[in-house]
Design brief:
By secondary structure, the protein is α+β, with helices and mostly antiparallel strands. Helices cover 36% and strands 27% of the residues. Strands 3-4-2-1-5 form a 5-stranded mixed beta sheet, covered by helices on one side. Strand 3 and strand 4 form a beta hairpin. The two termini are 22 Å apart.
Length: 106
Amino acid sequence: MVQIEIGRFPDGAVQSLICNGHAGFGDEDGPDLVCAAVSALTGAIGIGLTDGRKGPFPVSAADGEFQLKWKTPPSECDAFLVLTVVKSLQQMEQHYPGFLKIHERS
């Protein structure tokens, strides 16, 4: 199961998005479509927040892991980008129960 933790700034904006694990959706012969979708979404936000920018970047990734952590609130554009990904992941959680779990950290 993919475990996702969302942290928020006091104003409700997303401060962190941490994804770990693999969904295990599918069989031995087929691709894990849930994992592929999570990877595509987190990969897209990673590219959007790092490509053509000067570091340090709030993003890190490895096999089965993605972390986005802001120390200070992001720009309005970056906040919109991450919120779009979070809402997409929340919809995936509804459609694929047991393969993706989102936890809100207070």
